[in-house]
Amino acid sequence: MTAQAQLAARPNALADAILDTLAHRIGKDAAAARPHDWLAATILTMRDDIIDRWMASTKAAHAAGAKRVYYLSLEFLIGRLLRDAIANLGRTPEVSAALASLGVDLAEIEEIEPDAALGNGGLGRLAACFMESLASLDLPAYGYGIRYVNGMFRQRIDDGWQIELPETWLAHGNPWEFERRESAYFIGFGGEVIGTEDGAVHWKPAEAVEAVAVDTPVVGWRGKRVNTLRLWTARAFDPIKLDAFNAGDYSGALAGQLKAETLVRVLYPADSNPAGQELRLRQEYFFSSASIQDIVRRHLQYFGDIRTLPDKAAIQLNDTHPAVSVAELMRLLIDHHDLGFDEAWAITQATFGYTNHTLLPEALESWPLPLFERLLPRHMQLVYQINARLLREARKAGTDDRAIAAISLIDEGGERRVRMANLAFVGSHSVNGVAALHTDLMKQTVFADLHRQFPARINNKTNGITPRRWLQECNPGLTRLVRDAIGPAFLDDTDRLEDLLPLAEDNGFGERFAAVKRANKVALAQHLREVMGLRIDPDALFDVQIKRIHEYKRQLLNIIETVALYDQIRRHPEREWTPRVKLFAGKAAGSYHNAKLIIKLANDVARRVNADPSVGPLLKVAFVPNYNVSLAERIVPAADLSEQISTAGMEASGTGNMKFALNGALTIGTLDGANVEIRDHVGRENIVIFGMTADEVAAKRANGYTPREVIEGSPELFQAVEAIRSGVFSPDDPGRYAGLMDGLYEHDWFMVAADFDAYAAAQRDVDARWHDRRGWNATAIRNVAKMGWFSSDRTISEYARDIWGVL
After folding, report:
1. Among 209, 203, 206, which Cα is nearest to 191's?
2. Which of 94, 161, 256, 538 could form a disulfide with 521 if both were Cys (CB 3.0 to 4.6 A apart)?
3. Ordered DSSP codes for 470-490
4. 542 has a pLDDT exceeding 80
5. pLDDT-based confidence at 10, cuts 50/70/90?
6. Non-local CB neighbours of 301 within 8 Å, separated by 6+ positions
7. How far is the CA of 93 from the CAs of 88, 107, 523, 629, in angstroms?
8. What residues are paired with 622 via a beta bridge?
9. Do β-strands 226-235 and 313-318 pair in parallel, antiparallel, or remain unpaired?
10. What is the pairing mode between strands 207-219 and 178-189?
């Protein structure tokens, strides 16, 4: 048989394999199979190919004695996996044809695969992009996290309010995962530390759970490598106490298992109360300890000598959550492998790298010292030892008392707390920010004194996104257009997108580009009509802000400007207004009152605006519920305008800004996070920048800022704030937003009022650009062409070369 004939026969063979799986592993025949049966059969059939590559990748790494990367993250927002896996294997056409021959639509069954509830926002999505790029670059790696049963929450909007419901993504099992019973570890809590006659110490925990590994394969581009995402689940050593059960104490008999399951039930339990704080710390230690034990066990299995750990393992802490890993590795090296403190500390620092993702104090994490010492008494001793070494060295170098207090691992101001970010910093040989501006601010603010102590430690690694999911998979129309125009080289090297630049001025290409965008908008409009009953015009400008709801991200600024625009359209119907659809999406933390109030305000504004015939098709507003990866994959390709409007100096990087620009949306934003570098790459004329810089924000806060004067001095802002404050948009509860608006008058920490006039002027600049459709298309094409640098492949290559030493 010729090669061409063999290729033609493959879909038939694959169809037969899917039918065989359906019968022998799902227990259904084709006539009785439902869509979820076809989904499971397709995943399990494709999984066989993936498993072969997975085993081959693991064997090759072992045979080569390769150094491995270990990426520890509390979140992995991986989304649906079927489309990602078959696309990276290059088998999408084959799978689609095979299913079609069986009367099944691949796109339809892809839609019913649940999103894995393993993350919340940018941190988790970045971790997923990084895992995919590590495999695509053929770098041996493990991701480590928690297998959350319910994730953060499923968001429902009831009468405009966010309602948090359990996410049940595991209700019907997960065909992608494999439990590894042999990879199970003892995780202790509490108890006491006992000294021995020879001067050693032994931690005797008062309670313990078992961490059990569950592995998911991560397929790289073109199937080059399959790496492992290892997630931990928890179980009690005695899942049921029969004596208690037989005595009628049924709840008590199962208490141990319930306590273990609580560790892996929910992502980010509310830590506004002592019980929530304790659970959060237990979760972080649970997954950190299991991961470090697993890394050490694997190293000893293949290399024998614990002293060579830094030569064969690079452990990256994704933000501050896994910082306790530093103390845990020290505990294992000293207590279990009999190394001295100095040698153990040298190994630890050489092994760890730490990525900081935020300058917000609450996200740098610190724990009340009594809580930390009660749960982790041996680790508390080690933290004190590490701190003693740090402070003695600092004092010898002439560091003054103020700086000593700042770099200490123990915060002595008020309630004594253990500073986890400082522990991660001093326990790592590399500390990196995730955008150039963020890294500079790290040096100047939260880590200023540690930076003076260790001036070579901080470096920058600007974030990136995987172009496979965020262009090729989510936007196949644009991918085909680009491939037809410049060839397929960009699929393997995103820098080749620059070959599009000469086509930005080509009117014919611009019209085809606009047609692809409109088709994506039509598809999104149809989806929103089905799920929300909302009718929107695909020829309007789609103005999008989708991200976690937080005051520093300034959804409130966007909503207030929307109210101002609404009023202007009603007052001046004779003007040539740009039709707009304002789309919001994102989740607010369950205990974050103002963020949840902002969601309600967005929905109240939407209800009033969308029902007003005086603005008609000129303005529509929608808050789309339950934002997740799959929803982003619908919205991003359809967006015309990307809202990246955080208070300058507060967004570490952002990756949504990159996704939108790669898909041909113009950015309106402040000079914050990676917006600065996007501007530098796409050119000032191809981005809409407004507002104060980070330095100007800091100066205004330091020199005195009176927001009331600003609000009362801006007619449009004053009108919008007072309309919201007085209950125009909340007639059922006129005082609902009084406190929120009073906060703007009184302190306005996030500079909503200070930046409003500049933001409103920038939006009118957007209107003018939209009316020049050829110019708009050209600008959008230039954005796509210049986004190759923001691939996570580039980011991971920099980590691999500069931090991990694996390139």
Report:
1. 206
2. 538
3. IIIIT-HHHHHHHHHHH-GGG
4. yes
5. low
6. none
7. 12, 12, 21, 23
8. 583
9. unpaired
10. antiparallel
Q: Give the separation between CA 124 and CA 214, rounded to whole angstroms.
A: 18
Beta strand segments in 34-111, E: 68-72
CB of 771 within 8 A of CB of 576? yes
Count CA within 13 A, CB hemisphere, residue 528.
28
Q: 222 falls in which pLDDT band (50, 70, 90)?
A: very high
Task: Let me know: does 330 contact 344? Beta carbons within 8 Å.
Answer: yes
To the question of pTM greater than 0.90 for the whole model, the response is yes
End-to-end CA distance of the chain: 42
* 8 Å CB contact between 798 and 133: no
pLDDT tens for each residue of 267-280: 998 888 899 999 99
Q: What angle do CA 496, 781, 489 make, to 5 degrees?
A: 20
Amino acid symbol at 398: G
Among 384, 417, 381, smallest CA distance to 203 is for 381
Quick one: tokens of 246?
A: 């037989």
Using N-to-C axis directions, what is the helix angle for 377-396 and 324-331, rounded to 10°? Answer: 100
DSSP string for 145-198: EE--SS-S-EEEEETTEEEEE---TTTT--TT-EEEEEEEEEEEES-EEEE-TT
CA distance 268 to 589: 9
Residues 6+ apart with CB under 8 A from 472: 87, 479, 491
721 pLDDT above the threshold of 50: yes
Confidence of residue 564 (pLDDT cuts 50, 70, 90): very high
Catalytic residues: 357, 547-548, 553, 655, 659
Comparing C-alpha atoms, which of 325, 390, 386, 318 is closest to residue 652?
318
Cβ pair 375, 190 in contact under 8 A:
yes
Going by C-alpha positions, the residue among 647, 669, 672, 648 that lies closest to residue 660 is: 669
Pick from 269, 264, 216, 274: which is nearest to 236 by CA? 264
Q: Are the beta carbons of 303 and 65 closer than 8 angstroms?
A: yes
Is residue 209 within 8 Å of 263, Cβ to Cβ?
Answer: yes
pLDDT in the model for residue 1? 46
Q: Is residue 766 within 8 Å of 666, Cβ to Cβ? A: yes
Confidence of residue 7 (pLDDT cuts 50, 70, 90): very low
Q: Which residue has the tokens 């359990």?
A: 166
Report DSSP state, residue 244: H
> Which residue's structure tokens are 């614990």?
306
Q: Does pLDDT of 6 surpass 80?
A: no
Q: What are the angstrom distances between the C-alpha of 343 and each of 306, 307, 308, 388, 796?
A: 11, 9, 12, 16, 29
Residue 174 φ/ψ, nearest 5 degrees: -135, 105
Between the alpha carbon of residue 11 and those of residues 81, 98, 109, 484, the distances in Å are 21, 5, 17, 25
Helix axes 324-331, 274-303, angle to 10 degrees: 50
The DSSP secondary structure of 564-598, one letter per residue, reads HHHHHHHH-TTS-PPPEEEEEE----TT-HHHHHH
- Please report the pLDDT score of residue 168 as a whole number: 94
